[in-house]
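Repro:
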Amino acid sequence: MISADQLDEMLAGLPLEARAALLSEAVQQLARNKIADYRPYAKQREFHALGKTMRERLLRAGNQNGKSFCVGSEASYHLTGKYPDWWEGRRWDRPTVVWASGETAEATRDNPQRVLLGMPKETGTGAIPADCLGDYGMASGTADLYDYIKVKHFTNGVFDGWSVVRFKYYAQGRRKWQGPPVDFVWFDEEPPEDIYDEGLARTIATGGMAAMSFTPLQGMSTVVLRFLGEDRTPDRADVNMTIEDAEHISPEERARIIASFPAHEREARAKGIPTLGSGRIFPIEEEAIKVEPFQIPDHFAQINGLDFGWDHPAAAARIVWDRDADIIYVTHCHRAREQTPILFAPAVKAWGEWIPVAWPHDGLQHDKGSGEQLAKQYRDAGLNMLEDKATHPPADGEPEGSGGNGVEAGLMEMLDRMQTGRLKVFSNLNQLFEEIRLYHRKDGKIVKLMDDIISAVRYAIMMKRFAITKPRPKNNGRRTTGNWRSV
């Protein structure tokens, strides 16, 4: 079996008739072993790698972004044992049992079965190589739908038995999902919660795993919240793949595809953002706030924001402020879970040890272990923490610190700046864009989930009056400083 790259080399220099014959043969080979030419995009590769440590994974992506072929390719690797050289995910050194599923019988045939086996009447042109396919049984009641098919499995290149892939669908109901142990369950499109639970239960005895690939048109459902909400556990992973991550689509084609979607579904279908409707706190098109990174001019003032965390991540953000145009740029962000100040601080210090850091009121709390205030611990770790907690600017004639620290006021300033072009975000800050996409209200109240970097940005903007320009060396080697106060 030759790859597309090898084919290009072989065609070079051949006579026209020989090229045509070789090309025809190669096309047939590629059709019978499509997976040989699979080269995952960065997000797809990230999803595969997470399988080594995560029991449950969600590939949350837009339409036609490559999500189904990504998970189908992984299912093929587990069924055949033919893992590619670049593979960093989990491996099985024995035959496996895989369930591949969709919403209805027809949807299962037209999506996961098509990805794995090919179109009806063209079995062997999907992700599972044709020469690995064995005995099969057809499902009743739906034309061309397989019930199961056996697949040759190899360990270290040696055939060691038959794997089995079965095709299931949610409309069968929960009872039809009860059965023997399974190694890998693939849910193509979002399943009902009871179906997901039953499928996941099949993997307990084998130490197996579940993978989902869907566009979240049902919004923040109970299944989605398992991966994005407070029910998220250390063995659940969410990978968000947008149309920008689909490298096979040109920028012009992306724009055409996005414009073809209904406006109210555009972000879900293009970027995998759960449909939140009027509940979104920042209902703004990302392109309106996104800018390419640039060299920061010396006259721009700078300040960092810090949001403390342990069980939920700690986060920091760096903003620079063009005071002449009153435009704020978010240039850096950092988020990490269960890191002490001494581990977290270096990433922020790398942005500039001289940059002052705004922090919230819980920085005044004392750590139960050391008895020291959180703010002081970060200062001791090398951050230039401001003396006082973050507050809004005081009214004229009022003392510093009297402006309060209301969350709504801070968010409204951020939204106002976004809508008027006065808050921009560097395009490479994917973690911040993910939070912006999901930040929403429920029953009128802010859902305090996935908002760590947003909070850090908010604190920095609240305290922008203490932002300073980069110090300049004096003739005697000392640096000048701006107007800020440290703890």
